[in-house]
Amino acid sequence: MACDHLNRWREDVELIAALGVDAYRFSVAWGRVINIDGSINQAGLDFYLQLLDALQARNIKAFVTLYHWDLPQYLQDNGGWLNRDTAYKFADYADVVSRAFGTRVYSYATLNEPFCSAYLSYEAGIHAPGVQNRQQGRQVAHHLLLAHGLALQVLQQNAPQAKNGIVLNFSPCHPASNSEADIRAAEMADQYHNQWYLQPIMEGRYPPLFSQLPLNEQPQIAEGDMAIIAQPLDFLGVNYYTRTVYRASHKGRFSDVPPTQPPLTDMGWEIYPQGLTEILLAINSRYTLPPVYITENGAAMPDSLQHGQVQDAERVQYFQQHLQATEAAIHAGMRIDGYFAWSLMDNFEWAEGYAKRFGIVYVDYTTQQRTLKSSAIALRDCFANRRDPNINTASEKE
Q1: How do the pLDDT tens digits run along the chain, 398 residues long?
Q2: What is the CATH number of the domain that holds 154?
């Protein structure tokens, strides 16, 4: 089985190369390389080393994400991200990986979307471990940001040749109406969901909303934490899928208004490409940003394989619109160094399992057969004809 798995990855690398991309973003599984006793699982590391060598042989830049929500069970059993020590364990893990990978990696991202690991997992209860507790969610968010800062220090020491940063997800926050209460609600939501992660990294402080939270909902912050979090970045990864609309709720807080009008993706998310331009220009005007990559952008659609083909015209249009939105931000003066489509293949989507398909490559989960969707062919042709060879164009997989 191990041999079959490795051969499948080799075939997938050939598939990636055939798409004409020059960068590939993937994540490393923490539990695959570090054992419960802290020792190194060399077989796990060797798997990634062979992948990195295969990419390098084809002149495909490796964008490595160290944490995409797969916390080892032995750490979860010890408190998970509620345990401050997990942040230091993460720095140790970053040290092991970056030493082993050497100069093979073009870019490291410490975390992917800490919003999801904190809010969806500990406040909304949608992702594992399914907790619904505001204070725990804020505490987990702080420990994740601390882990980022600690790991970034390690990466800058061990891999100074790499571009080292973090990947955050953003959604423009719009008011449900022109009422003062809804406008205030949207501003609060922006602070709580967008700025809560970016502002500490860029400015070493949480948004003003922090002080408005009851004391029993505020995270505990140790002296020196904010300085660790605010490590200089080589790049910022921006993930974008849709906007969010908010209205005022009880106790002066906010609640989101789910979209109902088409076009919607199979996730029920509004297709709103202009929101990508909006959020890019908003953060660019607010902060002194490092180079930015669009590290995730894509759509789940109800794909079906018919006569050996997957005609996903809606996804083709989605990418076209969002690439144009990216171009609009560039024309407005923003530096964007690359764009990654989410995702290379249909895969496991956490709380959704295998029910939603984001890939540009269709996967038959029974046979593991891969089929290029129309979107893969369209992106391949787009990448081949791009005007600026310095802009990285890529595919991605968890």
Answers
A1: 445 555 788 899 999 999 999 999 999 999 999 999 999 999 999 999 999 999 999 999 999 999 999 999 999 999 999 999 999 999 999 999 999 999 999 999 999 999 999 999 999 999 999 999 999 999 999 999 999 999 999 999 999 999 999 999 999 999 999 999 999 999 999 999 999 999 999 999 999 999 999 999 999 999 999 999 999 999 999 999 999 999 999 878 999 999 999 999 999 999 999 999 999 999 999 999 999 999 999 999 999 999 999 999 999 999 999 999 999 999 999 999 999 999 999 999 999 999 999 999 999 999 999 999 999 999 999 999 875 555 555 666 55
A2: 3.20.20.80
Which residues are marked as active site?
113, 296
Within-domain flag for 69: no
Rg (CA), the chain: 21
Q: How far is CA 358 from CA 19, 237, 319, 349, in A?
A: 17, 19, 12, 9
Yes or no: say if 334 and 328 are a contact pair by the CB < 8 Å rule. no
Q: What's the CA gap between 246 and 256, in Å, rounded? A: 4
Q: 63 Cβ partners below 8 Å, 6+ apart?
A: 23, 24, 25, 26, 106, 107, 109, 293, 295, 340, 394, 396
CA 269 to chain centre: 17
Domain around 323: 110-396
CA distance 241 to 270: 9
For residue 115, is it within any domain? Answer: yes
